[in-house]
């Protein structure tokens, strides 16, 4: 009898030990745990079961995790909050939440097996503002620290190096004279004055000004931007070629032959600003919707896309010669319609999440850099990246054979690279994991917003002229939204 009691006691204590061990190895981190300081369309944080990885993960883990976020609003007892949990299937969960009104007494409760984990519940008095609130902080430098932004970005320093002590009144005239070609080039001259946005656009196709509008408006709601003016190129191709006068033009994409000041692409910008409200891709959703573990994915290179470059046609030729290594197809013909019979038939689009049923992802340039690259990294595929003269704002931080596998510009070594990956599965998996980690640490919404804020902050320091609103400029208003902003001006004091 004593033996049985002792056995039961030992088992009971071991179970407690396991639970305590698990609890101590659950880490919670991310900008969503600072909702009073970090305002985003969708806030997010990570719940990381550090004792697990992709191989030891089992689906029951997600069933035992629960998140509740509650608060009060100024209008009722309950604040409207939408919560979304994404399972990365490696022991890490991304929790996103969106507040639709000003919240107070916000609580974030995280349960594992019906018990609070780590420091849960997290409590915030507030007010916690939705992203639509126009309640800017007054001190940009302080805001950058509160928002968790890096103090310095090497890429920004390099891009701005050619520009110093500029008179934008003169520079704007030169830019308009050189690049105002309505049929082929479109750009907008923006003025930020007293934290309000104004613009004057040039060219026939200016619809993409909405992306520039949206990031400037988003930043201006969060922090008082310095008075400044800048020119944003709305097209894909960078404009200012090396060897010409270094005119200051901001572009979504850079190249080895140009010196444009590179911003995050309009696609990645929209991903950050429309998070949880976007029907297409964002870097968080990709991480939470990949279904298969690496070992269960097909050891085949996958690609879908339109015919925007000759190398994409060559990719079809290569794939047809090695059908056991590839699953690639064109989804649309525009640039090479005369070759549809040869390279078709075109195939229907499939969910981007299904790309990652395959281990290897091919990244081939489109008209410029292929803007899907951040999402390929985020999905944890081993990316085979074509050598390219074009680059996005983060490319210089990537390393070959660590974050991706390089492929020659003409794709001549593509087959060899895929065969290497099949023969070195462990190394290929490590590269895929490194790419996914890079996306997690550099390409999420907080990172994109920070990059823009730091870029514009540094840019404003290089202007000498008095910033004025030119005649005929269009005011870009903030969207109307009812919000009670807290008093943030710490210089206000009572006279004694």
Automatic annotation (TrEMBL):
Native species of this protein?
Answer: Parnassius mnemosyne
Q: What is its main location?
A: endoplasmic reticulum
| SUPFAM superfamilies for this protein | E set domains
Q: What is a single Pfam family found in this protein's UniProt entry?
A: Filamin
- State which pathway it belongs to: Protein modification
Q: What is the lineage of its organism?
A: Eukaryota, Metazoa, Ecdysozoa, Arthropoda, Hexapoda
Q: Where is the signal peptide?
A: 1-23
Q: Where do the Filamin repeats start and stop? A: 18-126
Q: Which family does it belong to?
A: Belongs to the KDELC family.
Q: What is this protein called?
A: Glycosyl transferase CAP10 domain-containing protein
Recorded GO cellular component terms are: endoplasmic reticulum lumen
């Amino acid at each position: 009898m004593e033996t049985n009691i002792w056995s039961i006691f030992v088992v009971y204590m071991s179970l407690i030990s396991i639970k305590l061990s698990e609890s101590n190895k659950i880490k919670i981190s991310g900008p969503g745990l600072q909702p009073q300081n970090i305002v985003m369309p969708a806030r997010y944080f990570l719940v990381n079961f550090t004792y697990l990885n992709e191989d030891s993960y089992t689906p029951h883990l997600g069933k035992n995790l629960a998140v509740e976020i509650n608060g009060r609003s100024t209008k009722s007892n309950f604040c409207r909050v939408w919560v979304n949990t994404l399972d990365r299937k490696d022991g890490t969960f991304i929790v996103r939440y969106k507040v639709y009104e000003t919240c107070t007494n916000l609580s974030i409760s995280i349960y594992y097996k019906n018990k609070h984990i780590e420091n849960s519940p997290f409590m915030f008095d507030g007010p916690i503002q939705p992203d639509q609130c126009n309640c800017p902080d007054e001190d940009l430098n302080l805001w950058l620290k509160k928002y968790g932004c890096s103090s310095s970005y090497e890429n920004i320093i390099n891009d701005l190096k050619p520009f110093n002590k500029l008179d934008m009144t003169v520079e704007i005239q030169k830019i308009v004279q050189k690049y105002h070609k309505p049929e082929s080039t479109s750009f907008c001259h923006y003025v930020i004055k007293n934290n309000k946005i104004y613009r004057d656009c040039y060219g026939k196709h200016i619809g993409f000004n909405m992306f520039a509008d949206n990031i400037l408006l988003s930043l201006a709601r969060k922090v008082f931007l310095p008075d400044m003016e800048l020119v944003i190129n709305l097209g894909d191709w960078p404009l200012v070629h090396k060897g010409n006068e270094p005119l200051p033009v901001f572009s979504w994409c850079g190249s080895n032959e140009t010196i444009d000041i590179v911003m995050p692409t309009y696609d990645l910008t929209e991903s950050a600003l429309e998070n949880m409200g976007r029907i297409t891709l964002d870097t968080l959703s990709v991480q939470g919707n990949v279904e298969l573990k690496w070992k269960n994915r097909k050891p085949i290179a996958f690609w879908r896309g339109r015919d925007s470059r000759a190398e994409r046609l060559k990719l079809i030729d290569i794939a047809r010669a090695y059908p056991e290594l590839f699953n690639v197809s064109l989804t649309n013909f525009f640039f090479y319609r005369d070759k549809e019979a040869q390279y078709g038939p075109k195939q229907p689009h499939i969910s981007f999440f299904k790309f990652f049923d395959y281990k290897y992802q091919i990244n081939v340039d489109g008209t410029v850099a292929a803007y899907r690259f951040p999402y390929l990294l985020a999905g944890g595929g081993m990316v085979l990246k074509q050598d390219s003269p074009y680059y996005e704002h983060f490319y210089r931080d990537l390393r070959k054979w660590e974050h991706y596998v390089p492929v020659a510009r003409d794709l001549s070594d593509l087959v060899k690279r895929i065969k290497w990956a099949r023969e070195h599965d462990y190394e290929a998996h490590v590269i895929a994991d490194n790419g996914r980690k890079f996306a997690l640490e550099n390409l999420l919404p907080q990172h994109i917003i920070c990059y823009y804020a730091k870029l514009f902050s540094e840019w404003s320091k290089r202007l000498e002229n008095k910033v004025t609103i030119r005649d005929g400029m269009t005011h870009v208003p903030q969207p109307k939204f009812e919000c009670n902003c807290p008093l943030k001006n710490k210089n206000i004091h009572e006279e004694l």
